[in-house]
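S., here's the first fold you wanted:
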Amino acid sequence: MEEEIARRVGDPRGTRFVCRSGSPIDLDDVALMNVEEARSVIVLAEGPDADASVIKALLALSKRGLAEGVGKAAVAQVRDRSFLQPARIASGGKAAPILVDEIIPRVVAQACR
């Protein structure tokens, strides 16, 4: 994953990407991420129960220091509008849930303008 990011991003200008594998809802796997020192965290919605998995991941991240370490530099991908508020609550208000199906078309339209 890190190689793919490097290929697509090019020169990261001092930004270091750290990718981790494992279950984002397993506290032992989340402990490997060093959330306390991260400047930003991105939670992606994947799988059949993607939004529920995002909520679980945000709860695990909150347990491991999301609220103290990262602040508003945490972003969570959400597919269903009804999961926006639960995502905010699960992160203690420290993650910005983004409704992907609405924001991506807007970004593309703005880029085209």
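And the second, which I think is the more interesting of the pair:
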Amino acid sequence: MSDPTLPSDPQHLDAASVRATVERLDARIRARFPTRNLTRLPGQLIEVIDHLSARQEVWRGRRRWLVLISRVGIALVLIGLAVALALIAGQAVAAGEPHGWDWLTVFESLVNDVVFAGIAIYFLWALPDRFQRHGDLDTLQRLRSLAHVVDMYQLTKNPERLRPDFAATSATLPLGMTAIELANYLDYCSELLSMVGKTAALFGEHTDDRTTLATIAGIEDLTNNLSGKIWTKISLLPSAVRRAGTPVTDAR
């Protein structure tokens, strides 16, 4: 029996497998921490994945029309450029200059027309990619914000608070977790960050836009760095708990 959380193509990510993995993570979090606000985050990530899947279906048809419009626009620009050059040549000949053509005037007009035509062609050629980039960057920004939210959830979950000599203050929030629960909580946060990175990587499967790919790489670096902070905390749990006289076991 195939695992729905594994991509059907081992060389490419697909939204269905990423979504199935997040759903499984969501079920695990709800089973262990039903009253914690952490249960809200997988649903947010699933919404982004569903939005991406729906957007790709709509975008395929929309992109075909945008490509067609841009290519027709480029053809019109080239036709207009050819007509403009023909008019310039006709005016130069009709001017009756001593040597036939006023080469300076013709060259100046030629350069102006070619430059403006080149700008128009570049704009029209990149138009479909710009529309796609705009939508991708909006959603990727949402993923970046979600990664920071995950980090906020684990920010106060410090293993040192399990030490018997930990001195709480009036501003200290209650931890309300045992060592095993804290280890699981931090592990779930790390997994959520990993899935944020995987969701961002889905955008790279359908584009070669450098700006979008750079943004994806930035999100992956962010999630890796934040996850590294979490695993530093997890690595401190055994020593913190030994001081408290409580053994740590894996109860995930």
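Why I say that: Helices lie at 15-32, 40-94, 103-154, 179-203, 210-244. Residues 244-252 have pLDDT under 50 and may be disordered.

Talk tomorrow,
H.
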